[in-house]
Fold this protein.
Amino acid sequence: MSCRIVFLVGVLGLIASATAIAYAHADRRHRRRT
């Protein structure tokens, strides 16, 4: 179970970081256009 928890936390972390980066890029583009 410990291995599964660590794996899930790692995957969630990667998804969260990827989403944050994508959102940041979109926000920057929107600000530049405005």
User: Anything to note?
Assistant: The chain has a mean pLDDT of 88. The radius of gyration is 15 Å. DSSP finds one helix and no strands in the chain. The longest helix spans residues 2-33.
